[in-house]
Write a structure and sequence with these properties.
Layout lengths: L1 H45 L3 H57 L5 H15 L13 H9 L1
Length: 149
């Protein structure tokens, strides 16, 4: 049984490796084709007069910059869409916090510890931050108070 399991794992790894190698070979072929096209264009450019070479170079650069601008516009649209989504989520969470705070002030004292435990559990589930967080200097006392509590 152990030998069969190891053989199956080895075959899976071999298959994955072969698929990866095939993908890399295809990528190399595409890159070679692109290189050949660029070499042909370069050789054709060398045969042109210096004025036409400069004009051709400018056209190539304009094309490259146009494509880069389109890519950046697409990225900007994605980021704006994500920003809107995050703002909506923030509004929802702010509403939940306000509702929770309102319920804390009106809730009987004996229910508060239970509700506080629920809030802590929710906070732990939502936290998956890594790295440093940015904050405003004037928010530092509030952050310290929240860290302590």
């Amino acid at each position: 049984p152990v030998l069969r399991l190891l053989e199956a794992q080895l075959q899976d790894q071999r298959r994955e490796h072969e698929e990866e190698m095939e993908a890399l070979k295809n990528q190399v072929d595409l890159m070679q084709e692109e290189l050949e096209k660029q070499q042909q264009a370069f050789l054709q450019t060398l045969q042109l007069s210096p004025e036409v070479q400069v004009e051709f170079g400018l056209q190539q650069e304009i094309t490259r910059l146009t494509n880069e601008n389109l890519d950046l516009k697409e990225l900007l649209e994605k980021l704006e869409k994500n920003e809107k989504k995050l703002k909506k989520q923030l509004k929802i969470y702010m509403k939940k916090v306000q509702d929770f705070e309102a319920s804390q002030t009106t809730a009987p004292v004996e229910r508060r510890p239970h509700e506080r435990n629920m809030q802590v559990a929710v906070q732990r589930k939502e936290k998956d931050f890594q790295g440093m967080l940015e904050y405003y200097k004037e928010d530092e006392p509030l952050l310290i108070r929240n860290l302590i509590t």
